Each structure stands twice: as structure tokens, then as C-alpha cells.
Amino acid sequence: MSNRLRFRSGQVELHKVRVDSDTELEAGDLVWLDTDDVKPASAFAWTTDLATTQANFANVFAGVVHQPSAVGEVDPVSIDLSPLAVYEFDVVASTFELGGLLGVDGAPSALVDQRLAKVTAASRAIARAAEYKAASSSLLRVQFASALHTGSSNVNAAIG
Which pTM does this prediction carry? Predict the structure, then answer.
């Protein structure tokens, strides 16, 4: 994985979460909650097409990994659930408006651990653009919307 964790500003809210011994995580991975542990986006089941898979992923999106975990390790890792932290993140090259919706990107039949793409539906979004880009760019400042943080703009983040 080529991305590195690029925190830029804001309030980080780190939470310790479980990791299975067969799961490998890199700092900067987008992770989802699978019952009681986190897994990278690439381990999420592909369903029908990218739009459907993005929406399903948004339902369980946890946050951004802050510490790596190698295969065989079972120590909990720190992930950021904060909707207030700003990260510089790899994106599918495009122009961006402040507040524009982003979902996890996908290759033919798998999600990508550390890249976002523009989406049109809030049900597919896990992030918002934190800056305006008039020229096409593959790097963007973003704020994430965890389904586990009730203060986020993720449509799945409500209690009850």
C-alpha cells in the first residue's frame, strides 16, 4: 500500500479496536467493523456493483487506521472515528467542491484500502471534501464520516 497517513488538522478521536490475527492493516487504511473487529476495505464483500458495495460499506465504515497491524498480531489498533479531523487522502483524479461527497474507491471487484472517489448519493459516502479544487487533482483534504460516531454526517450514524 502506497498511501501514508497524512493527518493535517482538527480533532482526532482515537479508539482501540480488535483485529483478527489473519488481518493486515497499514496506517491510513479505511476500515469497517465486522461484528467485533476491524478489517480493511479490500476485505469487504463485493455485491453486484461498485455503487451497491459502497453503500453497504458506508453502513459499517469505522474510520481510519492510525497504527499498522501485521498478520499474526492480535493487539488492538487505534482508529480515528472523529468527523472533525482533516486528512490529505488519495482520490480518483477530478475537480472537487467543498463538501462534495466521497466514497471508498473500487477496482473491478474489490474495494481499495486507501483511495476515495466522488459519489452522488449520501448513502454511499464516507467522507466530504474539506477543500475546493478547480483543477483535476488526485490528492484532496477530506473529513471522514464514521458510521460509529453519532456526530458524523454518515447517514448510518444514528443511535436507535
Answer: 0.91
Contact 143, 128 (CB under 8 A): yes
Model confidence over 46-91: pLDDT tens digits? 999 999 999 999 999 999 999 999 999 999 999 999 999 999 999 9
Contacts (Cβ under 8 Å, ≥6 apart) of 28: 1, 3, 4, 5, 6, 64, 65, 89, 113, 114
Is 95 inside a domain boundary?
yes
Q: Where are the alpha helices (DSSP H) in the chain?
A: 50-60
- Whether 150 is covered by a domain: the verdict is no
Per the document, the length of the chain is: 160
- What does the pLDDT look like over 80-92, one tens digit per residue? 999 999 999 999 9
C-alpha cell at 70: 501485521
Domain, as residue range, for 27:
7-144
Question: DSSP string covering 126-149, please?
Answer: SEEESS-EEEEEEEEEEEE--TT-
